Here is the input.
Amino acid sequence: MAKWLVKSEVEDYSIDDLAADKRTLWTGVRNYLARNYLREMAPGDEVFYYHSNAQPPGIAGVAKVTKRAVPDPTQFDKLSDYYEKRATQENPVWSSPEIAFVKKFPRLISRAELLDDARFEGMMILQVGSRLSVTPVSDTHFNSVLKLASGAAVEIAKTPRRRNQVSRKSASRSAPNR
DNA sequence: GCCAACGTTGGC
DNA sequence: GCCAACGTTGGC
Here is the structure.
């Protein structure tokens, strides 16, 4: 089973939005390398959900792939920001798998925390200037993040003062576009 | 708000 | 097909 990371602007479609929707077509990705990764995604693959443009940015939780990629419907929609005039029904350009909410971490695993930890060296999301919104994640990196997330939960539970809690804006914005 | 790192565009 | 200019992303 492959592991992935998808990035979404927190103001646009956060993990809380995904939790509310339960599942969503991952539409609006307009980068060829990212698209190729989306096409590789298979049901059962686990996916980190990364919040960009957040304070702080980081991994908010886990999703999973529930359906293989189909043509991204937004490419055919003239009214969509993601309209693609080269695309036809016979020859679509962009692809969207379906992903489902699995869990939100008890606290955000911030980008800064990952950058500080040698175990996460080489994670694509941490590369300077990497703007890819879909990246593969190694099993080792995936498991280390999970360990960090569950360890943090215990730590917070034991601590009377919850210093590390991250404030969040409430969920629910517009449609699942990104 | 700044700016580095990209991807895309378009002139040639 | 090259590459400079430009726009966007997104961390800080």
The first helix of chain A runs from residue 15 to 21. The radius of gyration of chain A is 17 Å. Residues 153-178 of chain A have pLDDT under 50 and may be disordered. Residues 31, 128-131 of chain A lie near DNA strand B (CB under 10 Å from a C1').
